[in-house]
């Protein structure tokens, strides 16, 4: 107790993983980071690595955290209709932001290979959220106001993008491999609210909260 902790959430598109992450963060009184990490990394991706890590004081400690907090949060699902294209420099900046967060505050981080980036940290707890296609379809159709065919296509493309992204940046590991995570949860069988409760119970067992 007292030490900061990080929860990473990987999720299938439409599984409710982002909602689970946001609700969990709200109930724990900590921040949830997803697209804000990518946005901030993009802003600094024109800088060389040495400047990013050292000379630019805006990227150090709480100033980095404050910069992340100032960026807008998105609660709607974000599909990836295009194929995965690697950007090693952007990923490295993103990884440094994720490491900085893990060292400076308790938070929830969604996606971005955070479980892999932080695998050597003893204050990190990683979860994977998945659900059957029918459950994901229903959620995406409702949230995005689209038909079944389009929702099916978006789920397939987005999950493929996430799998390719994870495989590339982890050196061949599989995004859905349960050994990557402390726990894998089926949000259809367990329910969104009970997924949040289960993760909180796990953190209690680990004396984090």
The share of residues in helices is 40-55%
CATH fold node name? Rossmann fold
Main sheet?
A: 5 strands, parallel
Distance N to C terminus: 7 Å
Rg over C-alpha atoms, rounded to the nearest angstrom = 17 Å
Characterization of this structure:
- This protein has helices at residues 17-28, 35-44, 49-55, 61-70, 88-104, 114-117, 133-144, 148-169, 187-190, 192-205; strands at 6-11, 31-33, 107-110, 124-130, 183-186.
- The chain is an alpha/beta fold and 209 residues long.
- It is globular.
- Mean pLDDT is 87; it is low at 54-58.
In short:
This protein has 209 residues and is α/β, with parallel strands linked by helices.
Layout of helices and strands:
Blueprint: E1 6-11, H1 17-28, E2 31-33, H2 35-44, H3 49-55, H4 61-70, H5 88-104, E3 107-110, H6 114-117, E4 124-130, H7 133-144, H8 148-169, E5 183-186, H9 187-190, H10 192-205
Parallel strand pairs: 1-3, 1-4, 2-3, 4-5
Helix pairs in contact: 1-10, 2-5, 4-5, 7-8
Keywords:
209 residues, alpha/beta, Rossmann fold, 5-stranded parallel β-sheet, 10 helices, 5 strands, 54% helix, globular
